[in-house]
Amino acid sequence: PLADLLKLVGILLTSLAGWYLGYLLCALVPKNTITASIAHLQDIGKKPVLRAPVPKRQKCDHWSPCSPGDYAYRILSGGGTGKLAKICFDDEFALYCEEGCFILVQYQQVSSYRGLLFCCVIDSTDHSGEMTTFIKNAPEGSLLLMVTHDDGSTRLKNDAKKLVEELGSKEIWNMKFRSSWAFIAAKGFKLPDNIQKEKINHSDKKKNRYGGWPAEIQIEGCIPRNLI
User: Fold this and answer.
1) Are residues 205 and 102 in the same domain?
2) Per-residue pLDDT tens for 111-155?
3) Are residues 34 and 147 in the same domain?
4) I need a labelling partner for 109 at 20 to 30 A (CA). Which of 24, 65, 135, 213 fits?
């Protein structure tokens, strides 16, 4: 019995000493240190979370970059009244079809490009003659980028379509009311066979994304700088 009593007293004294030491540590150690230590213990055994780096924006919003020796291009057709047509070339030139536009045609000298760009957005007003003149007068070594916004077929005359066909278009004669169409061609030199040059999407009441308009389409790619 005396031995058991001594054991009990020892246990009580040890418990009291442990409680006192714990209280003393809490008083001396800063609260934020204790909180951080507890959080660290809770994190032990958890799988690390891997965070992918934010992807770098590429020229003309490509998913993957063109090589340093290439130009990047991206041609996006219009979709309804709120989705504007856009032509981008190597981030140095961008053409938007603003709301209410009929046709935008212009040459643009890009600092890194030795030739000229001919870009047009075809809409429903009669500018077929202007388009024909621009194509005929485009100098050798020009890139020609074309896209539709709204309807590009009704007012486009056959002589203009013939010129576009001679540039390599396979779809210009298939254009229907409000077809979405994008096309890139070269005058005086040949584009690589493996790049995307043309795409078309016809209006279909059962499939249209924007009521009377089909979904917009785009073509994009990389053009070697040494073609001219």
Assistant:
1) yes
2) 455 555 566 666 666 778 878 887 888 888 888 888 888 787 888
3) no
4) 65
CB 74 within 8 A of CB 218: yes
- Structural domain boundaries enclosing 6: 1-45
Same domain, 138 and 205: yes
Q: How far apart are CA 95 and CA 93, in angstroms?
A: 7
CA distance 51 to 207: 38
Beta-carbon neighbour count of residue 144 at 10 Å? 21
Helix (H, G, I), strand (E, B) or coil at 168: coil
pTM for the full predicted model: 0.68
SS (HEC) of 41-69: HHHCCCCCCCCCCCCCCCHHHCCCCCCCC
Backbone angles phi, psi at 110, to 5 degrees: -95, 135
Query: Tell me: the pLDDT tens digits for 44-82?
Result: 666 666 776 666 778 888 888 899 888 889 998 887 777
